[in-house]
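Q: Start with the shorter request: fold the first protein.
A: Done. Sequence, then structure:
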Amino acid sequence: MAQQQLVTDPEIYEKSHFNEQCKIAQYDSDFISRIDINNDGLTDAVVNEGAFSCDGARGPQCDGDGCPYNFYVQVKEGGYLLIATARIYSYEFMKRFGNMVFAFKMHPRFCDRTDSEPCEMIVRVRGVTFVTISKK
């Protein structure tokens, strides 16, 4: 596996990518959330690709499965590592059993279901790895 490239700042990295693709890129205040996603005391970043518009089209990569979210972990050597991209409707970041976890709302097929109720997946980040705790 190739070594992942460290980025200095996920917000600058992501915005420069979209600014190259769009004539007019507009970003909402929730485009990036800076939170400690892996409980290591360093501030990480979550980028919501649904919270920007490209040439007037809101969340151009979003579809019926949700929007892409990019999860970056800050490493103690300096910089950020992209550890995952997930296509989700939304998330809550909350404390469960003493650890901060994500509750993802996703398309029901991600929980192997065919009904219309969103799948809820509880995920913890350990180091640079996503660990699924439960899904329903």
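Q: Next, the second protein, separately.
A: Sequence, then structure:
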Amino acid sequence: MAKKSKKQQQSGGTPATVALTAAGVPFTVHSYEHDPSHPSYGEEAAEAMGVSPDRVFKTLVADVDGALTVAVVPVAGQLDLKALAAAAGGKRAAMADPALAERTTGYVRGGISPLGQRKKLPTVVDESATLHETICVSAGRRGLEVELSPDDLTTLTSATLAPIGRG
């Protein structure tokens, strides 16, 4: 796992919140007590924060034609792998091995953030994000979410917007 700087250690920040601060992007951190027995990390976050599941987005890592790619979709739906492959300019997509996703991003499953990853990966954000003034994504650990504008998220991750989620 990547070493934390003194500033991160003192502030309790994650690589995601440090990246947002460094970019000068306005954001709000939401913290809640993670329940390991909850069946869905994303739905748990929405319930704990009292936010519509349409505004809470999960970060998934997929393998598109041999290249890891990040998909950001609403927790209320699922990732459409065919749509992700097309949006990423590939032919086939499958979910990445969880251990590889953790090693590559520097985050643990259920806490993978699209921001501040160890290795910057191509990112596709479901276009439904633009329907909201702000959305929530993982801040880099279970029980911690960051709320920001979809425009800021797509800019910071150099993401493509595409219809990759399905209800």
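Q: Describe the second briefly.
A: The CA atoms of residues 66 and 93 lie 9 Å apart. Residues 15-23 form the longest helix (9 residues).
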